[in-house]
Amino acid sequence: VTAVSLNSVAFLLLFRVSFTNRNRFDEASNKSSQCRSDLGEECIAGIARIQYAVSKLKSEFYNHTPLFLNAGDNYQGTIWYNYYRWKVVAQFMELLRPDAMTLGNHEFDDGLEGLAPYLSRLQSVGIPTLVSNLIDSSGGIPKLPASLVIERRKRLIGIIGVIYDKTNELSKTGDLKFTDSIATVRAEAVKLKQRGVNIIIVVSHCGLEIDTQIAVEAGDHVDVIVGGHSHSFLFSPDSDQPYNKQDTIQGEYPVVIKNVNGRKILIVQAYAYGKYIGRLTTYFDSAGEIVYWEGYPVYMRHDVYQHDSTFRLVKKLRKQVKSYASTKIAETRIDLEQETCRMRECRLGSIFADAIADYYTNETFHPVAIVNAGNFRTPIPSGDITNEDAIGAAPFSNSVELLTLRGDALWNLIEHSVVWSASKRLNAMQVSGIKIVADLNRKPYARVLTIEVQDLRSKHYKPLSRTATYQVVTLSFLASGKDGFKWALECTDRQIGPLDSDVFIGYLKKLKVITEQNLRSGRFFINGTVTS
């Protein structure tokens, strides 16, 4: 039992991040693919479970004046979004009604024209979207406040929203500008302090590493950071709460950071896929200092009840996409995994790269294909492949484009894919028609040892020439230089093709059955292997 001062006040913090990105409005399997209960799979997650769990916690902890926050990335992930776009996201947001939220990078995937009506709808029903480090000089989206002050139990609570300051490299942000995440939060927190606010929560879509930097550099004013973007699963190993054993624990829940002045700042995340909602109760003294906390991620396992009216709504909406979604287009006898795509060659990446290369291939022309690993969102397990499986695997509605590139630009694109990101991940290029050998022990941008390109006539592989010209198929996201792949902009010609989902589905129909034999491995050797 921990003693808590009688003059302290407790607040329950509930949060959900990414309830659609890499996730399902509907139930999902433990692997976060479509749940197949007919095959005996255990169905978890889903918006109806989230709605019930949030409502139940709000009711149980009413005296702790709960706050419900959302850290962005509410677009994309399944055929639901491909079919309904922003409207279904707004509809479920209205049901969940977070006290405040911020934007994630995926909210920009349909450009400003796909974001503006969503924000307008949320504003019309009183759901505040906070982003402190976004500058919109052209008026492409509704004006968004940097922060919000809420009064609860006669205490002022400040909530600051912040997004990753390199979001313009990740998505279609138009003319928007993003200022430094850390400096902006610090400045906004100082403003709130000057207004007499001494409890400050940051809702961040920057990732755990940057959230940690915010805690260190702005920790004199910030108390709790509710994070997203890096999909970090935080869990205390000695906790008796249930969790999915397949989910790798990446840190304690919460992460506790001490700044230079000895203040404690709490950082929490709730992973992804709709598997968890975060729960954190914090006790503050009269000066706004945290004196005690307790909490854990709540696992949305199969025995969590589903909210009645939300379940009925999901069932109603499901009918409008079910026929198309469930249509079988092919069969795979091997798992097409997605989870490892950022770190190495993966089957899903290979089959997708083969698909977009095949679209432009004929008897006299065979381009190479490259796809950044961030393009892939959900795996395709062995068995029948449906339209929903294919669209959900790579759901961003990119066009398939043919670039004319010099060999040195192509080499640099591959080099960039094996540079560690801020969240300690690679963006390993998924390829077709080329073979790559890389060594991560070498310094960045000097890790690629060899690149060989397949010859159209002999089918043998020949060393890439840095001065030769190559035809390279990729997606519009990478072709636009996003995710730091700026060398794609050096192309001398750029041909825009059809949607990637149409190309992928067409190729799967053409193959009919996917086996190890028609999915050649050994495309990308990293540190001597394609499997680690």
From TrEMBL:
<keyword id="KW-0325">Glycoprotein</keyword>
<keyword id="KW-0378">Hydrolase</keyword>
<keyword id="KW-0547">Nucleotide-binding</keyword>
<protein>
    <recommendedName>
        <fullName>Apyrase</fullName>
        <ecNumber>3.6.1.5</ecNumber>
    </recommendedName>
</protein>
<dbReference type="GO" id="GO:0008253">
    <property type="term" value="F:5'-nucleotidase activity"/>
</dbReference>
<comment type="similarity">
    <text>Belongs to the 5'-nucleotidase family.</text>
</comment>
<keyword id="KW-0732">Signal</keyword>
<dbReference type="GO" id="GO:0000166">
    <property type="term" value="F:nucleotide binding"/>
</dbReference>
<feature type="domain" description="Calcineurin-like phosphoesterase">
    <location>
        <begin position="38"/>
        <end position="232"/>
    </location>
</feature>
<dbReference type="GO" id="GO:0005886">
    <property type="term" value="C:plasma membrane"/>
</dbReference>
<dbReference type="GO" id="GO:0005576">
    <property type="term" value="C:extracellular region"/>
</dbReference>
<keyword id="KW-0800">Toxin</keyword>
<keyword id="KW-1199">Hemostasis impairing toxin</keyword>
<dbReference type="Pfam" id="PF00149">
    <property type="entry name" value="Metallophos"/>
</dbReference>
<dbReference type="InterPro" id="IPR036907">
    <property type="entry name" value="5'-Nucleotdase_C_sf"/>
</dbReference>
<dbReference type="GO" id="GO:0006196">
    <property type="term" value="P:AMP catabolic process"/>
</dbReference>
<keyword id="KW-1201">Platelet aggregation inhibiting toxin</keyword>
<feature type="domain" description="5'-Nucleotidase C-terminal">
    <location>
        <begin position="332"/>
        <end position="488"/>
    </location>
</feature>
<dbReference type="InterPro" id="IPR004843">
    <property type="entry name" value="Calcineurin-like_PHP"/>
</dbReference>
<dbReference type="InterPro" id="IPR006146">
    <property type="entry name" value="5'-Nucleotdase_CS"/>
</dbReference>
<dbReference type="Pfam" id="PF02872">
    <property type="entry name" value="5_nucleotid_C"/>
</dbReference>
<dbReference type="GO" id="GO:0090729">
    <property type="term" value="F:toxin activity"/>
</dbReference>
<dbReference type="InterPro" id="IPR029052">
    <property type="entry name" value="Metallo-depent_PP-like"/>
</dbReference>
<dbReference type="GO" id="GO:0004050">
    <property type="term" value="F:apyrase activity"/>
</dbReference>
<dbReference type="InterPro" id="IPR008334">
    <property type="entry name" value="5'-Nucleotdase_C"/>
</dbReference>
<feature type="signal peptide">
    <location>
        <begin position="1"/>
        <end position="22"/>
    </location>
</feature>
<dbReference type="InterPro" id="IPR006179">
    <property type="entry name" value="5_nucleotidase/apyrase"/>
</dbReference>
<keyword id="KW-0964">Secreted</keyword>
<keyword id="KW-0479">Metal-binding</keyword>
<dbReference type="GO" id="GO:0046872">
    <property type="term" value="F:metal ion binding"/>
</dbReference>
